[in-house]
Design brief:
Elements: H1 2-35, H2 45-50, H3 52-63, E1 111-115, H4 122-125, H5 141-144, H6 174-186, E2 191-196, H7 213-222, E3 226-231, H8 239-253, E4 261-263, E5 269-275, H9 283-290, E6 306-310, H10 316-323, E7 327-329, H11 346-355, E8 359-361, E9 363-364, H12 388-399, E10 405-407, H13 442-462
Parallel strand pairs: 1-2, 1-10, 2-3, 3-5, 5-6, 6-7, 7-8, 9-10
Antiparallel strand pairs: 4-5
């Protein structure tokens, strides 16, 4: 009987140990998959659906290689639709930074961060803008029928999976703008990459925001930050309209002390423009603007600048080079979604850029989740893993020794890539994600940590 009891206890202990070991292995596998997700690519339904213009663009180039017709895409990938959590907007008047300006981390002008000023609420705008983002249907009607329709209803129900500490704020609120500048400065970023449409234009869910640029420049200057422009794919964007809009930006804002100019290897100080969805326009059109011999050439004029194209597919690198761009960036915070956003491709992209005198600007992000506006898209969610996903992205970026790192994003709440402060929030129908067990400023602190690490490593690269 004694031997039987001993054997029974031994078997129980062995089973428990085996079960714990299996659970440990499963948790490790899940964590690795989150940090290194399988490539979604554009061959799967999600990739093709979010970027339908890529399919059309491919057909256009294969069948009409010599045509100069541009095709207009719906650019669903980064839809500028958002719904605001109309929480008491008076929260915005609270100062989110505890340290005075002189105690904040020094700005790192090699850390560029994407910023959106398209949010609105009734107090400042007479209505909610972007916080009430519509739910986007799946392109397959059979799948779309399985998901809810309509739009979000702020303030309790906003178009985001996280909830801002400042509530469903207005981008026009001066206290919000200042709070954002303090947060970006505390994160030791240096250059704000401001989403921009020409005067009178906006994304399909927003309102024109060019009038807000002078205010953003003033507050950025207060915190020793610089501002550059992320030119969105506005209607009829081509070589001629781009020439006029670049001229407009430089003439109107180029004299402001917060206007960003990048020092090139030859010592020139040039403005910089990120061009979102640049691949929508064929290289021949861009070459008219960006090459010395182009019919609309901006080169060697007072409006010359550094133009950075979006790279999504691998073949885009050749188009970018032929177009006359000065560099490329990857934007998406979804490791594995596109060729450009996949960390393991950054080394080869950097090598291509180095050999062709181009800048390579990898984009890192803290995670990705957009199921508040695309409820069918959990396939491309990238869990934050309490900050580990973000640090993995930074680590991958530093390995290729880039001149600049871009961050997606400060406040793209619809796609859950924000590093802005977020707080726990529960309503009758919605439980928002949050940064627990960390504080609301955890991603600002992680950015500051990697900014300092980048500075130290860059000193070694230059030795």
């Amino acid at each position: 009987i004694l031997n039987y009891d001993i054997m029974a206890r031994f078997r129980r202990r062995t089973c428990i140990i085996l079960l714990l070991f299996i659970l440990f292995i499963c948790s490790i596998m899940m964590a690795l998959k989150t940090l290194r997700p399988d490539r979604a690519g554009f061959g799967d339904p999600f990739g093709l659906g979010l970027l339908p213009e890529l399919q059309q663009r491919t057909v256009l180039l294969e069948n009409k290689q010599n045509s100069l017709n541009r095709f207009q895409g719906d650019t669903v990938t980064r839809v500028s639709n958002f719904h605001s959590v109309a929480v008491n907007t008076m929260k915005a008047s609270r100062s989110p930074a505890n340290k005075p300006e002189e105690q904040l981390s020094p700005p790192n002008y090699n850390f560029h961060i994407f910023y959106y000023s398209w949010f609105g609420n009734p107090q400042f705008d007479g209505k909610y803008i972007h916080w009430n983002h519509p739910l986007l249907p799946h392109w397959d009607p059979k799948i779309a029928n399985n998901y809810p329709k309509g739009r979000h209803n702020p303030p309790e129900d906003i178009g985001a999976n996280f909830y801002p500490e400042l509530g469903s704020y207005s981008s026009k609120d001066p206290s919000v703008i200042e709070a954002h500048m303090k947060q970006m400065r505390s994160a030791s970023t240096g250059v704000i990459v401001l989403s921009w449409y020409p005067p009178g234009m906006a994304d399909e869910n927003g309102e024109p925001t060019d009038d807000l640029v002078p205010v953003i420049l003033d507050y950025a200057h207060k915190y020793n930050l610089k501002v550059t422009f992320h030119i969105e794919p506005y209607k009829d964007r081509d070589d001629r309209s781009m020439y006029h809009n670049v001229k407009y930006i430089i003439d109107k804002y180029g004299g402001h002390p917060a206007f960003y100019r990048h020092k090139t290897s030859t010592g020139r100080l040039l403005p910089m423009f990120y061009v979102y969805d640049s691949y929508v326009t064929i290289p021949e059109i861009w070459a008219n603007l960006l090459t010395v011999s182009g019919s609309q050439s901006i080169r060697n004029t007072p409006y010359d600048a550094l133009f950075i194209a979006l790279l999504v597919e691998e073949r885009h690198k050749h188009d970018i080079h032929r177009s006359g761009f000065d560099g490329m960036y990857t934007y998406f915070a979804t490791n594995g979604f596109s060729y450009g956003s996949s960390h393991h491709n950054w080394a080869s992209l950097k090598a291509f850029c180095d050999s062709n005198n181009l800048m390579f600007i990898p984009s890192v992000g803290p995670g990705y989740i957009d199921t508040s506006i695309r409820p069918w898209n959990n396939h491309n969610t990238r869990n934050r893993v309490n900050g580990k996903y973000y640090e993995t992205a930074f680590s991958a970026a530093l390995l290729v020794r880039p001149e600049i790192i871009s961050i997606t994003s400060f406040n793209e709440w619809h796609e859950g890539t924000q590093i802005e402060k977020a707080v726990p929030k529960r309503t009758g129908q919605v439980v928002y994600l949050d940064y627990k067990p960390h504080k609301p400023n955890v991603y600002l602190e992680l950015t500051q940590k990697w900014s300092e690490k980048y500075r130290k490593e860059q000193e070694q690269w230059l030795m």
